[in-house]
Amino acid sequence: MFETGLGIHFDEQMCEFIYPSNVFGPPHVEKRYLKDIIHSLADSKATGPKIVYSIAMDIGLGNDRIDLLERELLFGTVAYAAGSIGEEPVKSQGHIHSISKTCQMSTPEVYEIWSGEAIIYMQEKATNDPGRCYAVQAKAGEVIIVPPAWAHCTINASKTEKMVFGAWCVRDFGFEYDAVRAHKGLAFYPKFDARDKIVWEKNPNYQSNKLVEKSPREYTEFRLDSKLSIYQQYKQDKSKFDFVVRPDLCKEKWENYVP
To answer: Which of 128, 157, 173, 213 would bridge with 117, disulfide CB 3.0–4.6 Å?
Structure first.
């Protein structure tokens, strides 16, 4: 596991996160089952792991709890199962972040991969024309920011290893699924080829568009430090991730955004 500054571990047998004594977190994870994500798969009859991923929201060091509540900032972690769902990798259901009451707009999310390898797929819109489409592949210690209002999903890029990530999001987070479900998923479906590498298949329910595959970049406009975990950066500067809660205060950074 990547050194997060929190010392959290995932118990694979119990499908639960284990916290040190100085870290708070929910006593039990939320589990997402295969039936919960079937609407966003290319093959709605595919089989795979029963528990697709396990979620622990609202975690952190005990002495940070009050500050996190006051900022409306939430830290969480998610563990994705190894394996595949038919020809597709284990992934989340495509969604858009709901309008937050904190800022009256959709909010971004800051991902940090802790173990394994992930692909964060994102597209500008969930309309017939999806706009720009990106697949950003990241390894342990790398960060990806999904901007406000973009449709996206999280993918375990490996068939043989679990994938775990941590993320900053707004405390009153919520998801919109209807537009993605109406198109039977996002604009591109990830699939494993004969060598268990990810390839992409266009979803015919969208207008044809180009997919850009890329690695994560340095997010200098948000003053992120690639040498420290995102929780450790919060510890050094409690205001660093305020843009997650108030993306309206940096609208120019979301214009023509490239992940």
So the answer is: 157
